[in-house]
Automatic annotation (TrEMBL):
Signal peptide from the UniProt entry: none
Coiled-coil segments: none
Pfam families linked: Alkyl_sulf_dimr, Lactamase_B
Record-annotated Metallo-beta-lactamase domain positions: 74-286
InterPro entries per UniProt: Alkyl/aryl-sulf_dimr_sf, Alkyl_sulf_dimr, Bact_Alkyl/Aryl-Sulfatase, Bds1/SdsA1_MBL-fold, Metallo-B-lactamas, RibonucZ/Hydroxyglut_hydro
Protein's name according to its UniProt entry: Alkyl/aryl-sulfatase YjcS
Gene: yjcS
Region entry Disordered, spans: 173-200
Lineage: superkingdom: Bacteria
């Protein structure tokens, strides 16, 4: 940020936002170079705590007839009030959370539900539909690709379920939990999907313009986080509902729980299309609505540009012969976007996005013949030990890295030591646990932090097999 523009920006912000803006400046100077999300523990915790305001529970009045419920679960749900009924956009995770949101909405309108619109098929947006209706049978809108959000391959669902728990920190203690980057840590999850109602109206890829309960509404196909996504435009109210293609964090272009390739170029283009409408308010799939034409439109333009920049930088690096490990440490957001509060890497991560783009475009092989048929882990560990002068010197190097707070190196060395038959494998496990917790303490990226802590707990409790350790 230009130092001359900062005072002007501050004059437009609330006290809480000013505090967060100052924290952004702090992280820009404190964070290591090359796009990583590690800072000192105090700053990391302060940043994550500051993000909490993005999902404080309540109903936000977005326009005279538009209301968004934030913080009732991980995602948002919205209500548009028409002449003889209401339209519900997204329905949360299950009936328990959705019932509370529906009750909050009824303070503003008790009209019957005429339609429900799903922005995409992720479970936290579709599982509570039944809680919003009584005797009515509303039309339920979704794209013709609805249901493709997680891909079609169910073979790896068992491991994805485990990784999902880690990414979202679902089993972390209250002392360990912060949040999920774009959602609160504590959500009611026991009734997942029990209120889901199947779509009855298919939105074609060309889009749909219609009138529901006297409200003019447009549904636009918008692949991005999922291939079945749409956004909703209210032309009279100038309100745009973005679904999960936009929220206040750098986007999760790859989810570490495990996802098929999310077409990054499509995502950028879809958000760019949203910006063309110049909305007076944009309602994200998660986090607080952004109101005011300049603020909302600028946020969408910046978001589209940020995604496209990461894509373009990665492609240029690929064509220059660089591999994913190098690019993950080189690609960064443009300077003029780094200080935007809706692009801080609380949820998505630039390095993870780079790796996903590389794999999505070229597959796993980086083009270097050295990595075409690498040594198996046990053999590599033995050779690392020989290089260090034996198992004991390698173990000492591992312990020294931990003592020096060089947590990533300690982590990598522990994974070598664990394979050695003559090593103290229990010590290696303890070092790995400590290194994971050391990394977690420095993370302001919530999925990274949650995953490190969850994995450390699983190791400590003996839940993980020797293969995983």
């Amino acid at each position: 940020m230009n130092k001359n523009t900062f005072p002007h920006l501050l004059s437009q912000l609330t006290a809480s936002t000013i505090k967060f803006g100052l924290l952004i400046l702090l992280v820009l100077t404190a964070a290591p170079a090359r796009g990583q999300t590690q800072v000192d523990p105090e700053t990391a915790l302060r940043m994550l705590n500051s993000q909490q305001h993005q999902f404080e529970k309540g109903v936000i009045k977005v326009a005279d007839n538009v209301f968004t419920a934030v913080g009732f679960h991980g995602a948002n749900t919205s209500m548009i009030v028409g002449t003889d009924g209401v339209i519900i956009i997204d329905t949360l995770f299950g009936p328990a959370s959705a019932t509370k949101a529906a009750e909050a909405f009824r303070q503003y309108s008790d009209k019957p539900v005429k339609a429900i619109i799903y922005t995409h098929s992720h479970g936290d947006h579709i599982g509570g539909a039944s809680a919003f209706i009584r005797d009515e049978q509303p039309d339920i809108y979704a794209t013709e690709r609805f249901g493709s959000a997680e891909g079609v391959n169910k073979a790896v669902d068992p491991v994805k379920a485990k990784r999902n728990v880690r990414q979202f920190g679902r089993k972390l203690s209250a002392a360990e939990s912060t949040n999920r980057g774009v959602a609160p840590a504590g959500t009611e999850d026991g009734d997942r999907g029990e209120g889901f109602l199947s779509p009855t109206v298919t939105v074609p890829s060309s889009g749909l313009k219609t009138t529901i309960a006297g409200v003019e509404i447009e549904l636009h196909f918008a692949p991005g986080e999922t291939d079945d996504a749409l956004f909703i435009w209210l032309p009279k109210e100038k309100v745009l509902f973005a679904g999960d293609n936009f929220y206040s964090s750098f986007p999760n272009l790859y989810a570490i729980r495990g996802t098929a390739y999310r077409d990054v170029l499509n995502w950028s283009q879809s958000v760019g299309k949203m910006a063309e409408f110049q909305p007076h308010a944009v309602v994200p799939g998660h986090t607080m609505p952004i109101q005011g034409q300049e603020a909302a439109t600028t946020a969408l333009k910046d978001y589209s540009e940020a995604i496209r920049s990461v894509y373009d930088q990665t492609v240029r690096g690929i064509n220059a012969g660089k591999g994913p490990d190098q690019l993950a440490h080189e690609v960064e957001l443009p300077e003029h976007l780094k200080d935007k509060p809706y692009l801080i890497q609380f949820y998505g991560s630039v390095p993870h996005a780079v790796r996903a783009i590389y794999t999505g475009l070229l597959g796993w092989y980086d083009g270097n013949p050295t990595t075409l048929n690498p040594l198996e882990p046990k053999i590599k560990a033995q050779k690392m030990a020989e290089l260090a002068g034996g198992t004991q010197p390698l173990t000492e190097q591992m312990q020294s890295a931990l003592a020096d707070h060089d947590y990533q190196w300690a982590l990598e060395l522990s994974d070598h030591v664990k394979w050695l038959d003559d090593a103290d494998r229990q010590l290696a496990r303890k070092v790995k646990i400590a290194a994971l917790r050391g990394l977690a303490a420095r993370e302001y990226n919530a999925p990274n932090r949650n995953y490190y802590l969850s994995y450390a707990n699983e190791l400590e409790s003996g839940q993980l097999s020797e293969i995983w350790f």
